[in-house]
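Case study 2.
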Amino acid sequence: INDNDLQPYEPVCLTELKQKINDLRWFRDNKRLLVACENGTVVEVLRPDRSKIDTKASYVVPLPTRIWTIKMMESQMKKNQQKDESEEEKRRKRLRMYTGKDADEFKEEEEKEWEPAPILACSYFSDDPNKFLITADKEFKGYIYICNFTNDRPVRCLDY
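Prediction:
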């Protein structure tokens, strides 16, 4: 690329996300911007119509957004909740011996949800603007997640 290939761009407006941005990608129609944030969210910002933006008082303009926060997948929850069967049987026997009650009478503490982790990278996935791919840090690390704005949790994860 040389200077002759660059097109001049005029600013339209600014919008605040108030999060550290790790990655961003335009949808193929250039009307939506997908933003990966440090706080575990993916934000989609709609490109404004230049004719409808009033910047007389300020260039900072709130724009329509959709926000999705990473959560554990159902399969990840099940894996975390699985226990070694022999250990579970020993625990049941101890409970019966000391309390005279069956283990099923006690409510087990549910597996806690992982805290949202930084979204490291994002990209739209397919022609559907609801679908996107992400990678994340911490407990979510090591997978590419297929996500959908219409689902609370990732739809699928791929090992990499």
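The chain has a mean pLDDT of 85.
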